[in-house]
Amino acid sequence: MKILFIPSWYPYSENPYAGKFFVEQAKALAKQGIAEITLLNWGQNEFQIQLRKPILSLKKYLRYKSSKAGYNAICQNLIEISLPHLSWTSRLQNGNIDSLINKLELKDKPDLIHAQVTFPAGYIAWKLSRKYNIPFVITEHSGPFPFKEYLLDGVLLDIVSKPLMAANHVLAVSTHLANEIHNETGVTAKVIPNMVDTDFYLPSEEHSKNECFRLFSLSALTASKGIWDLLEAVNMAKQAGIRFKLYWGGDGSLRKPLQRKIDSMQLQNWITLLGNLNPAQSLLQYQQCDCFVMPSRIESFSMVIIEALACGKPVIATNCGGPADILSPLNGILVSKANPKALSSAINTMAETYDKYSAEAIRKDCISRFSEPVVSKMIGDIYQQCCTIV
User: Residue 205 falls within a domain, yes or no?
Assistant: First the structure.
């Protein structure tokens, strides 16, 4: 079976994490022998220009002018097609995506197209499906659904609604997201979660007991990720006399304001900001912590939670969408979002009980639900259904 796999975001040198999990999913499907995958890279992020960032946009334009189309064999059963293309906001001529579709020729016709996120990838898949009479599937990841830019006077734009209505299958990475899609469009989405590489994310064989309760958090440092809620919760936990330390990974626009607030609240001995972490550095932090904490206000899923679970660590997370599908009394504590007091109480509870959680049971449960073989089979079953019907 041949699959054209279209991500809506794509990693590149200056932003190696943009859409990285889309590429990892394509690799996993290829590795598991689900299909022969052709991965479309048009410079989704690399060549997306923004008028409000003229200098950065000029750099992207110049890089685009010197770029070349081509093919790259990533691994067995996985080929990348590079087709450099300028894009911009969807509010202006559909982001210039139609011209990309016009220059994309499918000489080796795939059996099915799998789009990651409805716009732009799902829109491209819809157009190609009509042109070549190929079935297509959309996996939606975006939360909250829909993004505001796809609404006009409260009505969902055609570039999102029409692909969703026409898709042979719509998949959502969580029950919460599936409900949002249905409430907005009437489309019923099947829930298939994201996958984690459980061969990479492993418990440490040499982890010794920490001197005090050790928390780890990893996210973009933005308001939507609940950073101020976590900061306030840490301050409450400190005042309650809990012995702990938070190692906080990630970067973002609020990094400097966050550090200033940590200093002004005299929390330097309780919080260490780690900055951006590569996968190996993140793995080390997962392995060394006693508990992972995820304070976000909105998550359609949460990759960092299942990475922590794969390492056998219990998790404290907010009930902000996707985490409700992932957490249970077996593997952690779910608290209300935007509620520092509840978050602080969970930290207190976890500090007293974390050694009662079974790392083996947490990891086993994670493998059974989110490992690459398990989720790849779910996706492969959808592929087979689409191609059998056609």
Answer: no
Task: Say how far apart CA 330 and CA 362 lie, in whole Å.
Answer: 7
Residue 126 shares a structural domain with residue 106: yes
State pTM to two decimals: 0.95
Is there a contact between 110 and 3 (Cβ–Cβ < 8 Å)?
Answer: yes
Domain assignment present for 72: yes
Inter-residue contact 374 to 367 (CB < 8 Å) = yes
Whole-angstrom Cα distance, residue 368 to residue 181?
26
163 and 263 in one domain? no
Q: Under a CB-based contact definition with an 8 Å cutoff, are residues 104 and 69 in contact?
A: no
Cβ atoms of 83 and 40 within 8 Å: the answer is yes
Task: Place 389 in a pLDDT band, splitting at 50, 70 and 90.
Answer: low
pLDDT at 98 over 60: yes
Long-range CB contacts (< 8 A, 24+ apart) of 55-61? 61/86
Any domain includes 201: no
- In sequence order, which ranges of the chain are alpha helices (DSSP H)? 20-31, 54-65, 97-103, 123-132, 158-166, 175-185, 227-239, 255-264, 279-288, 303-310, 323-326, 340-353, 359-370, 372-389
Structure tokens that stand for 275 in this block? 């900055």
- Report the domain count for the chain: 2
The phi and psi torsions of 82 (rounded to 5 degrees) equal -100, 125
Q: Which two tokens stand for residue 373?
A: 């073989």
Instruction: Say if residues 274 and 242 touch (Cβ distance below 8 Å).
Output: no
CATH number, domain of 171, equals 3.40.50.2000
Q: Which of 59, 372, 389, 23 is nearest to 200 (CA)?
A: 372
Mean pLDDT of 187-199: 98
Examine residue 202 and state whether it is found in any structural domain, yes or no: no
Residues of the domain holding 259: 213-370
